[in-house]
Amino acid sequence: MYKMILLFVLVALVACTSDKSSEEAAMANQETALYASWRTGQSYYKVNPFGVFLVKRTDTLQEEYIRANRMLTAFKIAWQNDSMYTLRFHKLAENPQGQSLPDGIDSLVKVCTMTNVSDTMYEEKAWSNMSYSYIYTTYRRPKQTSTDNAILQK
């Protein structure tokens, strides 16, 4: 009789534990997919006083187009894990207004961590070898105009 009760309790514990593990695994898979959805594609962010930066990411490159002055820069992107990546300055692709860049930009390395991630936005906490404090940026998915689409498709 006691063996039957003990067996019943053990089966119940295993069943409860496996359900919770399945739910946790499903949540972890959803979170991983959410982070992965930001690895490539288009987004934007705003920085005062420069305005809107349009961002296009591929597996290895992040291009940033500044709408105000039509400057296009490129950064090599390397992912450390689901939520952390490093940007390294690659090149200035377009600079129609001849804007000057900060000294040392050629050696820029920015380490970024994605936080508060959702389908439509995420917050980035970053530090770089050109700054003494953390940089916080909110990336958003674009509601694109046809002009923005043409610029990002270059």
What would you note in describing this structure?
It is a single chain. The radius of gyration is 22 Å and the shape is elongated. The longest helix has 35 residues, at 2-36. It is of the alpha+beta class and 154 residues long. The protein folds into 2 domains: 1-36; 40-152, Beta Barrel (Lipocalin). The chain is built from 2 helices and 8 strands; from the N terminus they run αββββββββα. The chain has an 8-stranded antiparallel beta sheet, covered by helices on one side. It has helices at 2-36, 146-152; strands spanning 41-47, 51-57, 61-66, 71-79, 84-94, 109-115, 121-128, 135-140. Strand 1 and strand 2 form a beta hairpin. The mean pLDDT is 87.
Secondary structure: elements and pairs:
Blueprint: H1 2-36, E1 41-47, E2 51-57, E3 61-66, E4 71-79, E5 84-94, E6 109-115, E7 121-128, E8 135-140, H2 146-152
Antiparallel strand pairs: 1-2, 2-3, 3-4, 4-5, 5-6, 6-7, 7-8
List keywords for this structure.
single chain; 154 residues; alpha+beta; Lipocalin; 2 domains; 2 helices; 8 strands
